[in-house]
Amino acid sequence: MNVRVEEKAVLDRAGDRPPEITVVQPVAAKVTPRGARSHSVSAIVRRGALAFGVCVVAFLAFGLWFSGLTHARSQVGLQRRFRAELTNANAPIGGAIAPGAPVAIIDIASIGVNEVVVEGARSAQLREGPGHVVGSSLPGQPGNAVIAGRKTLYGGPFAHLGSLRAGDTIRVTTGQGASTYRVLGVDRVKAEDGSVFADHGDNRLTLLTSNSSVDASGRLVVSARLVGNAFQAQPLRRTLDSAGLGLTGEHDAISSVLVWLELLVALTLIGVFALTRWSRLAAWIVFAPGIALFGWLVFENAVRLLPATL
Q1: Residue 100 contacts residue 122 (beta carbons within 8 Å)
Q2: In which region does residue 39 sit, left (phi positive, over 0), alpha (psi from -120 to 50) or beta (all else)?
Q3: Which residues contact 98 (CB under 8 A, 6 or more apart)?
Q4: Is 279 part of any domain?
Q5: Are residues 91 and 235 in the same domain?
Q6: Looking at the domain assignment, is residue 146 inside a domain?
Q7: Residue 295 domain boundaries
Q8: 211 plus 169 within the same structural domain
Q9: How far apart are alpha carbons 139 and 44 in whole angstroms?
């Protein structure tokens, strides 16, 4: 009887003890203040705007200055090649002339022009120098010989074409010999005016470039008449190259731009990742030359999209 009372007392005491409860404190969610989020977005926008501005300035620097180095280098090689062809009497004077091949040397002393003229007047060809418009006569031969040149980019060999005056002399040397032309006048014509490519019933030289340094809404045209007799006419293509009239770019160059741009972005991202693993000096030494090279190739191909005579 006593044992049962003691057991009951123990159970009663155990029942009086409150159960142990483990309280789990909730973890407060990390909340980014609205001001911090807006600050982060504005920082991204500023950096994006800065990167875009740097790209624009770099492209302008390439077009206005560095592209002239490419032009000068090309002219050195073309001068050497064409003078050798003149010496060997195998300079092209007719038939199927390869695009980009040197066909003449144009000398305009009054505005400081001495350039090798290449075959074709598309954007890629006018990077090398002034270009003979396919479908027109070659300089020195009967008819209207048309030569297009850049006004601003790649050295702007025809930048001062508008400074010519009636009576100024233009000398052109081809595989048939030297020819002299006298300037008749300087005109500005609309883009749709095709008279500059027409045969005017005389032997003339027509030089053309963009009417402005920033757009190609029309042409600045210099007309000059041959002094003396023309050389013998040679068989040439007589159909104008619609893509080589000076006011359009090469739309197929977009594929080249995209390829080099993708490589540039990929190399830049790898370089940024390398900065987290390497020293800044080592990353710059390894990646900066490649980034500069790909950037140059992007700009060179992007220029092909612009009007050829800019």
Answers
A1: no
A2: alpha
A3: 92, 119
A4: yes
A5: yes
A6: yes
A7: 252-303
A8: yes
A9: 57
Whether residues 170 and 71 share a domain: the answer is yes
Token pair recorded at residue 193: 């005016």
pLDDT per residue as tens, the chain (310 positions): 444 444 444 445 545 555 555 555 555 555 555 555 555 777 767 766 777 787 778 877 777 788 889 899 999 999 999 999 999 999 999 999 999 999 999 999 999 999 999 999 999 999 999 999 999 999 999 999 999 999 999 999 999 999 999 999 999 999 999 999 999 999 999 988 989 999 999 999 999 999 988 888 899 999 999 999 999 999 998 889 988 998 888 888 899 999 999 999 999 899 888 988 899 899 889 999 998 999 989 988 988 899 999 9
**Are 237 and 257 found together in one domain?**
no
Same domain, 174 and 283: no
**Is 259 in the same domain as 235?**
no
* Cα separation, 222 vs 258, whole angstroms: 37
131, amino acid identity: G
Say yes or no: 235 and 272 in one domain: no
Rounded to whole angstroms, how far apart are CA atoms 207 and 186? 9
The reply to whether 22 falls in a domain is no
- What is the number of structural domains in the chain? 2
3-state secondary structure string across the chain: CHHHHHHHHHHHHHHHCCCCCCCCCCCCCCCCCHHHHHHHHHHHHHHHHHHHHHHHHHHHHHHHHHHHHHHHHHHHHHHHHHHHHHHCCCCCCCCCCCCCCEEEEEEEHHHCEEEEEEECCCCCHHHCCCEECECECCCCCCCEEEEECCCCCCCCCCCCHHHCCCCCEEEEEECCEEEEEEEEEEEEEECCCCHHHCCCCCCEEEEEEECCCCCCCEEEEEEEEEECCCCCCCCCCCCCCCCCCCCCCCHHHHHHHHHHHHHHHHHHHHHHHHHCCCCHHHHHHHHHHHHHHHHHHHHHHHHCCCCCCC
